[in-house]
Structure formats: structure tokens, C-alpha cells
Amino acid sequence: MQSLLLGIDGGGTHCRGRLTDSAGRMLAEATGGPANVWSQYDAAITAIESVIDTLFQQAGLAADARDRTLLVAGLAGANVASVHTRLQSWQPRCQGRYLFTDVEIACAGAHDGAPGAVLIVGTGSQGAAWDGAQFTLLGGWGFALSDAGSGAILGRRARRLALLAHEAIVPASTLTKRIMALHQNSPEQMLIWSQQATPAEWGSVVPEVFAAAQQGDPHGIALLQQAAADIVQMVQPLLARSDGKLALMGGIAVPIQPWLPADIAAQLVPPQGDALSGALRLASQFSQQPA
What we know:
Number of helices: 12
Strand content: 15-25%
Shape: globular
Number of strands: 9
Structural class: alpha/beta
Oligomer: single chain
Order of helices and strands: EEEHEHEHEEEHHHHHHEHHH
Radius of gyration: 20 Å
Mean pLDDT: 94
């Protein structure tokens, strides 16, 4: 029997999976919880395995179908060497397992395997350029050190600004008042929340920021201008490494584009496929290799 192909896209907000037959016909698709193997390794593996279980259940396949399944997983945080080493002990039941970062499978999907670059701007951020032979990765070093232009960084800036406004250090706005209300208008409650907040939770106010900016809120506008500047800083070296072909992907990619400088926005190309299509394209290539 021919191999089944399974793609996993594990990000900081959620994990997505897609199962197809060898011809690319979709059998099932599912979404689960956050799957960043750097920030929450055990929870990420649990989320991934739950999505895999759901896919096979939805497809109505017996357990032994996994033995003819080629799995390609692109995981946020897999660029960290120690995490990549730890992942070698993760051996889900399958015919073959191939691990990439989420940005690498996104790049494969965005340009259908051709040279090009991507910048993922979701909960976190990371860039990759593919020259036809190897990937160059930029960023992706986590919420504390990196993630320029991401939802988590934007959300943290928004909360910091809300706190400044609450203490009358800067003028308040509708946006800052809404954010403080999420924490009972209490700096102490915000502090307690911040000690345990995940990157996805920091990014939870991003829709509020975009909505406020569209309504002319000065703080919302300033926050998006700053996020756009961060993205430009990442985009420029990626464009230099990719013959000028770059796609923005992730949850912030579409809403942030009107805030980018016109010369940068003009150089962006629409992605031909998503990260899951990239994972499945790679899985298809592996399935055609000699045993």
C-alpha cells in the first residue's frame, strides 16, 4: 500500500495537522493547542500527539495505518540545538519522521519549494531564506530575546503602555483603558498575571490594538508603526538573501501590511501555499526517495 502523508505545523498559538494520501487528496485536518517545543516542550508534544490522534480518527483509519505514514513536522523552537537534540527521543508511530522548524515548512509552502524567503509574524516571529540548497534562519530566539514584529511583543508593548497611561506618565486612550480593564484596573493584578503569562497570552490583545488603530487611537497607531518598523528590519536582510522574493505569513501578516512602507510592501509576494502544504510537499519528496 502507498504511504500516507502527514504534515504538522506547530506554533506558539496552536498546532495544525493535515493528513493526505500519496496523491495529495486530503483525508483529515485538525487543530490543537500551542506547540512551541522551546517554551513548553511537554505540552507541545502532547498537543501534537493529540492532533495526530484526531487526524486518524477523523479519517477512520486503523492504528496500523500509521506504519505507512510519512510525518513531516515543522515546530516553533526546533531551531534551538538542545531542543532539536531532545526531539530525537520523540518517536511517534510512523513509517518515517522528519523534523524542521515551522519557518522552514512555511518557506517550502510559500514558494512551492523554489528559492525565496518568508517572515512568519504570528505569536512569535522568525525568518528563513531558501537559496535552493540550504536555509538561512533569522530570529526565532524566543519572546525574551527576539520575536521582532510578533503578536507577543506587540501585546507586551501594549500592556506596558497601558500601565504607563494608568499611572498618568503618558496620556490615556480608549485602548489603554480597555487593556487595564482586563486586569481590573490594577497594576498589581497585571503584575501577578505577567508572572505566568505565555507568549500567546501576551498576544491576546493584538486584535484590540488593530481595532483601536483603525479607529484613530494614537497609542494603537504608534504601536502598529513600531511593529511595522520591526518587521522592516527583519525583511531587509531576508530580501537580500532571496533574490527579492519574500512572503509574509502568520496571523499578523495580512493586517500589518497596510502599515508597512510602500517600497517594502511592493516587494512582498503572496504565498503559494501555507506551512502545512510545505510540510506535505516535503513529505511527498521523502516518499519518493529510495528506501
